[in-house]
Every structure is written in structure tokens, then in C-alpha cells.
Write a structure and sequence with these properties.
Strand content of chain A: 25-35%
Oligomer: heterodimer
Largest sheet of chain B: 2 strands, antiparallel
Distance between the termini of chain A: 16 Å
Shape of chain B: globular
Helix content of chain B: 25-40%
Distance between the termini of chain B: 36 Å
Shape of chain A: globular
Largest interface: A-B, 29 and 32 residues
């Protein structure tokens, strides 16, 4: 019944960046992330809410081509990162981070996601269904 | 997308279960409000008018990050949709229904008037029977209308817990009919531990449904 499919990117050396990030999270953040993924997979039009309330954002400038999902737990903001392929209704996870005002944790999360994106576009690595 | 087994594995941790229920609860009501409004083709203003609330309240009610949605507001919105709101405790095994299979497509809740039309034509029954999730006793013959349910003990199968197969509908049928007529439990395909429901396009005799319970 899902409208959207979520996939994990697996690097050539068999690393799963989103899973590695997920395992560093606290339990309540993991639960919120799982619920967000389920929520978005069952939502046909992600653009229906006002821009400020959308659960995703397409990045620009330095990280153009990347897409971040948006969720928060208490006052903390989290940003799973990936590539949005609207035509196929797919989102491919490339990593994630906790978002602070002037930095993210891990600090290189966006650059790393961008690097993985270029590998993915070169056809290197693989994807598998997100669980 | 998560499957029942995978989510169940995560739920082994009590801490995760608590966090999951909290996160899911925050998501569930806003998600349903959004889906029902979309299903009816209403704007937030229209729903606000029916619910005697303001558009701003509806906007916040649809936002899962907004943490102060009150029961009073939910009840007013239910009134606006002319549907019931049932806050009830549930077993984690109902996960399929309220988490995994939940999408805008599956949130199809008719209002009272729509249901009443089915009631008046004799096609609306209590949904109590379909909630019994037990395997039928093996060897019993099941007709298309007559249903027997063994309420003594669920059968344990090797791949118990795997997601059930979705059964095809027997003919063209509208979304509401799918909901309203989802009454008759059918035996599961061999290998599945849970009972699923088959939509019956024709009305059934209530006395026959109750036969084996």
C-alpha cells in the first residue's frame, strides 16, 4: 500500500551508511526515524503541507542534488540524507546527521553523502530495500 | 518498507517499544486527519468550518511535530468528518493494521450517512467477527458465506508472524464497499498464521456468521 519506496545505498566495500548512522542513535530517535519513514512511504504527495512543514527538503548550493528528510525529537533536529528520485517514487539513503545551527553531527555528513551520491550515479555500489 | 518481522524484532527492546508507541501516536492522528481530508477533497478551511474550529487549528492538528493536540480538538474534527474517534489500547500484534499497512490509501473511513445507506439496504453488519484473528480448524469445509472460527487456540506454523497475503477482490468494488463489507474471515493460505478477511460482494446472513463462534 506504500506510495514511496525507501532504499539503502550499499557501498562497494559493503558499508551501509544509513544503518551505521542509525545504530549510533538513541532509541527514541530511532523510533521517530522509523515512524517518519513509514509516514512518508504512505503519503502520496510530500508537497501537500506548506513548505515550512514539509518533511523533506531538496538541498541547494554546495550540496545540490541531495535531499534531506526532516524530523525532530524534543528540541533536537535530525536529517537523514539521500537522493530523491521522484519519477520512480524512490528515496535512497546515503547517510544522516543531527542538525545544529551552524554544524552537523557528524560534521562531514553532507559532504560524505554527496560523495556517495556521485558513486551511486557512477553505478558503483548497490541498493537494497530499507528496513 | 518495514515488514512485520523486522518491526517486531526492534520491538524486543522495551525502551524502543515505549519510544515507538509515543512516536507512532504523535503521527497517527495527524496522518489520519490529513488522509481523510484529502479523501473527501476538502481544504483545511472547509474542515475547520465543519468542525467549528479555525484553519490554524486544523493546520496544527495535521502537523505531527505539534505536540499539544487535545482530545477535545480531535473530537471536534471527528464530528466535522462525521466519523467516530476511538482511542483504545491495542496489542503490538496489531502492528500490521495500524503501522505497516497504514497509508493514505488505506485510511478510508466513511461518514455516518454513507454507512447508513448500506445499513438501509441490508449490506452493513457489525465488524466484530472480522476482528477475531484465529485460524479455522483444519479439515472444516468453508463455503463462501458460512464461516467457522476455532476460538480455542491459534495454530502454530513454521513461518508464523510473516505478513499475510493480500487476497484479490472478486469483482470491481468501490473503496467504501471494501471497508464496509470487510466482514467475512476466510482461512489463510497454508503457511500463514493469521486470519485475513475476504471482501464479500453479496450480503451475508448474520446467523450463519455466528455459527462457529
Amino acid at each position: 500500500m506504500a506510495y514511496w519506496k525507501f532504499l539503502d545505498y550499499i557501498t562497494e566495500d559493503r558499508h551501509n551508511p544509513i544503518l551505521e548512522w542509525y545504530t549510533t542513535l538513541e532509541t527514541d530517535v530511532r523510533a521517530a526515524f522509523d515512524v517518519l519513514v513509514q509516514d512518508l512511504s504512505g503519503t502520496e504527495d510530500w508537497d501537500a503541507p506548506k513548505p515550512r512543514k514539509r518533511k523533506y527538503r531538496l538541498l541547494r548550493r554546495r550540496h545540490i542534488g541531495l535531499c534531506e528528510l526532516i524530523f525532530r525529537v524534543g528540541n533536537r533536529k535530525f536529517r537523514p540524507l539521500g537522493v530523491l528520485i521522484s519519477e520512480n517514487r524512490e528515496f535512497i539513503f546515503l547517510g544522516g546527521c543531527e542538525h545544529r545551527r551552524f554544524f552537523s553531527i557528524p560534521a562531514n555528513a553532507f559532504d560524505e553523502a554527496l560523495r556517495l551520491k556521485s558513486l551511486f550515479e557512477q553505478g558503483r555500489g548497490a541498493t537494497r530495500e530499507h528496513v | 518498507m518495514s515488514t512485520f518481522n523486522e518491526v517486531w524484532r526492534k520491538l524486543q527492546s522495551k525502551e524502543y517499544r515505549s519510544a515507538f508507541v509515543k512516536a507512532q501516536f504523535k503521527r497517527l492522528v495527524p496522518f489520519q486527519i490529513r488522509a481523510l481530508r484529502k479523501q473527501r477533497g476538502w481544504s483545511q478551511e472547509e474542515l475547520a468550518e465543519c468542525s467549528r474550529l479555525t484553519q490554524g487549528v486544523i493546520s496544527r492538528a495535521e502537523d505531527s511535530d505539534y505536540g499539544n493536540l487535545t482530545v477535545n480538538t480531535i473530537l471536534k474534527i471527528a464530528d466535522g468528518f462525521d466519523v467516530a474517534f476511538v482511542g483504545r489500547f491495542a496489542a503490538f500484534s496489531e502492528l500490521d493494521e495500524w503501522f505497516i499497512d497504514l497509508s493514505e490509501r488505506t485510511v478510508q473511513i466513511p461518514n455516518f450517512e454513507e454507512e447508513n445507506r448500506f445499513f438501509e439496504t441490508g449490506r452493513l453488519f457489525s465488524r466484530r467477527v472480522s476482528r477475531t484473528r484465529r485460524m479455522p480448524r483444519s479439515g472444516r469445509k468453508l463455503g463462501t458465506r458460512l464461516v467457522y472460527i476455532d476460538t480455542r487456540r491459534p495454530t502454530q506454523l513454521p513461518n508464523a508472524g510473516q505478513r499475510q497475503l493480500s487476497l484479490p477482490l472478486s469483482g470491481p468494488i468501490g473503496d467504501f464497499e471494501k471497508t464496509a463489507l470487510k466482514l467475512i474471515p476466510q482461512p489463510q493460505t497454508k503457511g500463514d498464521a493469521r486470519l485475513s478477511c475476504l471482501v464479500q460482494p453479496t450480503p451475508v446472513n448474520r446467523a450463519q456468521i455466528g455459527g462457529g463462534i
